[in-house]
Structure formats: structure tokens, C-alpha cells
Amino acid sequence: MSPITGALCERFSERVVMFIGSVLCCIGFILSCFVTRIEHLLVTVGVISGLGAGLSLLPGVLITSRYFKTKRALANGICVSGTACGGLIMPRVIQLLVAEFGLRGTFLLLGGGILQVCISAALLRPTEVHQRIVEIDEKRKKLNGEKKVTTNGEMKEVAVEMNDTKKESGEKNTGLVEFDLGTGDKLAETSAELTETEGKGSKKKFCLQIIDWSLLKSPSFLLCSTTVGLMAMCNPHFLYYMPSYVTEKGIVTKSEAATLVSIGAAIDMFGRIGSGWLADRNFIPLGKMYALCFLVAGTAPLILPFATNMIVLGILCSLFGLAAGFWFLLVPTLLTEYHGVEKISSSYGLARLFQGVMTFCSPLLIGFILNATDSYNAAFFMMSGCLFLASFLVFTVEPWILRHHRRDQS
């Protein structure tokens, strides 16, 4: 759904897409309360909630990349840390809910919880509206030197200007009512019935924007998408297969194996925030930091077959979680640096498509290796080899891409 979600965000705004995605997720989980067969869950959880998740996850990253300039990496790090935090907390919560309310009650409660994403969606003020508000505030400060005060009348003026601009240029429809986050006052209704006025031209343009194939001609995007696919061969499958391996070998108990996964998720969360802070400081070039992520992550599956105690396993899970957190944050940051914030919807959506395809295929390959060798070792070595290959590509190819980019600019 990632490329389609990016195009929908361009057409209807991040707010509308996230709102619809949250509703779809909620419907899927609520319908799961009434299923009688596993096949029904393939539709309710797999298809309906899957579509909703695809629509809900991407808009937050896209609008964050557009809003921030000087501290974009840190803002993105805080944004994407939510998934790691959920991975750390929600399995324990779901266990308690199933024990207390049963599986059907748990589906119902999860559906209600997911519906709260609509509140977050309502707070996503479209960037073009926000920019106009900032411009009006700056004009007021120059005129009277007073503190920032934005009246409803001025916001209606913004709405009129925005709608006139959109009708002329065919920009996306924001779709919902704006609110001033500081006062809670209703600002203005920034949308209009633009579908009829934009005509066939904008519809054709929208269809072409679903997947921006021109990105496939960019060496920087091909490098990024290739390395994203290689990372998907290992992440998150390393943390899926590791508990089975260590318990089968008798190194740790099932409870200790679950603790190892929690350690990896916790370090992943801090890695996403820490990488944003570090990237904004420019201590290390983003490309070099990106390559180091693969190098560090690759050491965990390489050393795992030789680990013999809980301490070593904890260190390996921590290294992998830290590197995965850095990598997850650096992907949208690098794409923004390579292709600009204007193409973040297309570039990040298409990169996530590569990730999704490889995430789907890699368990099949890992399962084939397990059946052929009757051992986890070959699978872990394959994961490590993919990550080392990604690191090698970034270290060797990215400097050439940067030189090529500078030559084009000059």
C-alpha cells in the first residue's frame, strides 16, 4: 500500500488518509469479534485491517518530513519510535486482555484502541495551511509588534485564499475542518468540492502519480531501495527466529527468550530517537552512518550460532535493535536529502514497496534453507551476508553518487 498511500496523501492530504486508515483498522478488528473460522480472519485482520494499517502508518512520516527542516531527523526519529514502543508494550497488553476478556473481547478492545488514531489524524494540520497561518502571523508582528494572535476572520481569509489557489492549480484537497491547536478555536473550513472543478486533467495526473517510475532512473534511489530490500531479508526475521533457535539449543528458557526480544525492541526505540539527534548534529555523514547500520546489524546473526549464554545473547539483540532503529530512521531522511521533500511521498512509498516485497519473500527463503540444511546456522549466515553486502554497496557506491549529483548541480 505504500506507493498508493503516498499518492493518496498528495491528492487528499495526510490527515484524510490517516483518518480513513484508522477507521478501516477498527472495522477489521471489530468484525473479527464475530468470525467463526480462521479463513474469516484472513479477510478481517489480513485484508481490511491490513489496508487500514497501510493507510495509517505512512502519513505521519510524510507530514513530519514536510514540517521540519533544521531538526527533521530528530522529528522523524520521535515519530517512528512509536512502532518500536508498541512492539515492546502491546504483546504484554494483549496477553493480559486475552486472559481477562477472551479473544473476541480482545479484538473489540483493540478495535476501539486503534480508532483513537483518528484523534491524531485530526491534529495533522496540512502544511500549506500552516504556512499561510505563519505568514499572516509574521505580517501582524511587523504591523503592530504584538504577540501572536490569529483570529477566526483571518483564518477564513486563509481558507478562501487556499481554496482559490487549489481551484487554479489543482492542489490536493485537505478535506476536513482546521483547528487552532493553541486555543481550540475553529479556524476555517479549508476544503471545497474540488473533484468536479479539477476535471479530467487532475484525475489523469493523480493516476500517473500512484507510482513515480522516474525514480527508478535515479542511482541514489536504486541504491537506497536495494539496501532496503537487503535489510528486509533480516529485519525483523532475526528476532522471529532467534527465540526458537536459542530455546531449541537449550541456551535459555522460553521466558528468557521473550525477554531478549523485548530488549531488542527497547533498544530499537531508543536507537530511532538517538539516530535522529545524531543525524541532526552532522557528526557523521548520513551515508556513512547508514552503511555502519548494516555493518553492526550484520554482526548479530553472524555471531549468534556461537553464543552460549544469556549475556552474549542480550548484547547481540541490543546491537541488532540499535542498528535497526538507526536504519529505520535514516531511510526517509536520506530519501529527503537525495530527492527533496517534494518527492518524499513517492520515494518513501516506493522504497517501502521494495521492503514489503522482500519481507514477504524472505520467510519463504529462510524456510527453504531450514528444510534443506535442518539447521538455523545457514539461515543466520544468509541474513548476515545480505547486511554486509548492503554495507559494502553503500560504502562503495554512495560516494560516486554524491560526486555525480554535485557535478549535475554545478
Task: Offer a concise description of the structure.
This protein has 410 residues and is mainly alpha-helical.
Which descriptors apply to this entry?
410 residues; two-stranded antiparallel sheet; 2% strand
Structural account:
- 79% of the residues lie in helices and 2% in strands.
- With 410 residues, the chain is an all-alpha fold.
- A hairpin with a 6-residue loop joins β1 and β2 (186-189).
- α1 crosses α3 (38-67), α4 crosses α13 (310-339) and α12 (286-303) runs antiparallel to α15 (377-409).
- 41% of the residues are buried.
- The model is unreliable at 168-201 (pLDDT under 50).
User: How confident overall, as mean pLDDT?
Assistant: 80
Secondary-structure-derived class:
mainly alpha
Catalogue the unreliable spans: 168-201
What is the number of helices? Answer: 15
Relative strand content: under 5%
Coarse shape: globular
Strand line-up of the largest beta sheet: 1-2
**SSE run:** HHHHHHHEEHHHHHHHH
The residue fraction in helices comes out at over 70%
End-to-end separation: 37 Å
- Report the major sheet: 2 strands, antiparallel
Q: How many β-strands, per DSSP?
A: 2
Radius of gyration: 23 Å
Topology at a glance:
Blueprint: H1 2-12, H2 14-31, H3 38-67, H4 72-114, H5 117-122, H6 127-144, H7 152-169, E1 177-179, E2 186-189, H8 194-209, H9 219-232, H10 237-248, H11 254-281, H12 286-303, H13 310-339, H14 344-373, H15 377-409
Antiparallel strand pairs: 1-2
